[in-house]
UniProtKB/TrEMBL annotation, chain A:
This is ATP synthase epsilon chain. It comes from the Bacteria. F-type ATPases have 2 components, CF(1) - the catalytic core - and CF(0) - the membrane proton channel. CF(1) has five subunits: alpha(3), beta(3), gamma(1), delta(1), epsilon(1). CF(0) has three main subunits: a, b and c. It comes from Streptomyces mexicanus. Its main location: membrane. PANTHER family: ATP SYNTHASE DELTA/EPSILON CHAIN, ATP SYNTHASE EPSILON CHAIN, CHLOROPLASTIC. Residues 101-125 are annotated as: Disordered. One of its GO terms (molecular function) is proton-transporting ATP synthase activity, rotational mechanism. Produces ATP from ADP in the presence of a proton gradient across the membrane. The keyword Cell membrane applies. It is a peripheral membrane protein. Residues 5-83 form the ATP synthase F1 complex delta/epsilon subunit N-terminal domain. InterPro entries: ATP_synth_F1_dsu/esu (IPR001469), ATP_synth_F1_dsu/esu_N (IPR020546), ATPsynth_dsu/esu_N (IPR036771).
UniProtKB/TrEMBL annotation, chain B:
One of its GO terms (cellular component) is plasma membrane. Its main location: membrane. F-type ATPases have 2 components, CF(1) - the catalytic core - and CF(0) - the membrane proton channel. CF(1) has five subunits: alpha(3), beta(3), gamma(1), delta(1), epsilon(1). CF(0) has three main subunits: a, b and c. Keywords: ATP synthesis, Cell membrane, CF(1), Hydrogen ion transport, Ion transport, Membrane, Transport. It comes from Streptomyces mexicanus. GO terms for molecular function: ATP binding; proton-transporting ATP synthase activity, rotational mechanism. CDD domains: F1-ATPase_gamma. One of its GO terms (biological process) is proton motive force-driven plasma membrane ATP synthesis. Gene3D superfamilies: 3.40.1380.10, ATP synthase, gamma subunit, helix hairpin domain. This is ATP synthase gamma chain. PANTHER family: ATP SYNTHASE GAMMA CHAIN, ATP SYNTHASE SUBUNIT GAMMA, MITOCHONDRIAL. It holds the Pfam family ATP-synt. Belongs to the ATPase gamma chain family. HAMAP family: ATP_synth_gamma_bact (MF_00815).
Length: 125, 305
């Protein structure tokens, strides 16, 4: 059996996902980072962007994460985010509408949020 | 029906109506406590992981950060008081306000100027009535606080603590809220959020002997701490808001339960009195009839027919 690491993806008000994985790719402020089992203890600041988790049963979980932290120690990886959504929870059509509205109103924050969601949703496909 | 009996009947009717209302409020509060407790539980993993991360950075690096180092002689402090928007919760708000006042007094004795921030209409009304200064206040979400509300509350506080004291910033940040111990017990507590006491934070989260690993910081320890501490404050405030909401509902439930019990007792007493009045009325009527009959008998006894 391949080596595994335990992943907890938690948002401020709920636990979004938890399970075993072989690889986690997340975007920190200094670039994308991939964490595999046995990685050196790490604490990083996340940018808003999609997080990809390759689960140990061969599946892939993609989540949109808006700001937060990644910490890894003792083969346990925690992804903390104020807002986190799994790709299959994202309503693509609604997000597209949101993106258009945000563009029209010039709300850069909302635009970025919607953009991250869309990218996560398309990456999962 | 006699006048007295009618008065009793009317009072019984009105107390019964009140009892129905308090009973309903009790049941609503009971269901809300459960919901609020569930929210507290759901927010725990995030708070725990965040605290762990803060401890890791604080102990694992030699970084000096304004939010973790104590000012040499602090002159200004911010106190955040969490109350509720609505009353009917027994001594819930009074206790929180009392705790805040004690804390303010203590800080002032230590020579610090205190800025008060208040959440909840009850606290705002209390301070306004006494014409005390409120730096900033928020109302309207105490029953079901969301994380966005916590962010809204935290933003000016973080701004104030990051500012220099000379420009109107503060050196310390205290929070007063009602801790949800159990359904029956809720206590008003005050705690200092910032500057951080790392040993205290560490005690909350882990067993004594656990050694934190030497972390690799991405991009750097300072940047991580910079990003981490505001989130930590937000998460602590969120947790306090949730606990305060749960406590408020529990206090309401208890207050309404005793109101319902009292109404029941009152109805019982009034029913007894009403029965007594009715019985007295009947007795009086009978004695009147008997008296009338015997008077009639006496009157006819002496005549010839």
């Amino acid at each position: 059996m391949a080596a595994e690491l335990h992943v907890e993806l938690v948002a401020a008000d709920r636990q979004v996902w938890s399970g075993e994985a072989t690889l986690v790719v997340a975007r920190t402020t200094s670039g994308d980072i991939g964490v595999m089992p046995g990685h050196q203890p790490l604490l990083g600041v996340l940018e808003s962007g999609p997080v990809t988790i390759r689960t140990s049963d061969g599946g892939t979980v993609v989540a949109a994460v808006h700001g937060g932290f990644v910490s890894f120690a003792d083969n346990k990886l925690s992804l903390l985010a104020e807002i986190a959504e799994l790709a299959d929870e994202i309503d693509v059509q609604r997000t597209e509408r949101e993106l258009e509205r945000a563009k029209a109103e010039g709300d850069t924050h909302a635009e970025r949020r919607a953009d991250v969601r869309l990218r996560a949703a398309t990456a999962a496909r | 029906m006699g006048a007295q009996l009618r008065v009793y009947k009317r009072r019984i009717r009105s107390v019964t109506a009140t009892k129905k209302i308090t009973k309903a409020m009790e049941m609503i509060a009971a269901s809300r406590v459960v919901k609020a407790q569930r929210k507290v539980a759901a927010s725990t993993p995030y708070a725990q992981e965040l605290t762990r991360a803060v401890t890791a950075v604080g102990t694992g690096s030699n970084t000096k950060h304004p939010l973790t180092t104590e000012a040499e002689n602090p002159t200004r402090a911010a106190v955040l008081l969490l109350t509720s928007d609505r009353g009917l919760a027994g001594a819930f708000n009074a206790n929180a306000i009392k705790a805040a006042e004690q804390l303010t007094e203590r800080l002032e004795r230590e020579g610090k100027q205190v800025d008060t921030y208040i959440v909840g209409r009850r606290g705002v009304a209390h301070y306004n009535f006494r014409e005390r200064k409120i730096t900033e206040s928020w109302t309207g979400f105490t029953d079901e606080p969301s994380y966005a509300d916590a962010k809204k509350v935290a933003a000016p506080l973080i701004e104030a603590i990051e500012k220099d004291t000379a420009d109107g910033g503060v050196d310390e940040l205290h929070i007063v809220y009602t801790e949800f111990v159990s359904m029956m017990t809720q206590t008003a507590v005050d705690s200092r959020l910032l500057p951080l006491r790392l040993d205290e934070v560490a005690e909350q989260t882990q067993k004594k002997d656990e050694i934190l690993p030497l972390y690799d910081f991405e991009p750097s320890a300072e940047d991580v701490l910079d990003a981490l501490l505001p989130r930590y404050v937000e998460s602590r405030i969120y947790n306090a808001l949730l606990q305060s909401a749960a406590s408020k509902h529990a206090a309401t439930r208890r207050a309404m339960k005793s109101a319902t019990d009292n109404a029941g007792e009152l109805i019982e007493t009034l029913t007894r009195l009403a029965n007594q009045a009715r019985q007295a009325e009947i007795t009086q009527e009978i004695s009147e009839i008997v008296g009338g009959a015997s008077a009639l008998a006496d009157a006819t006894a002496g005549s010839d027919y």
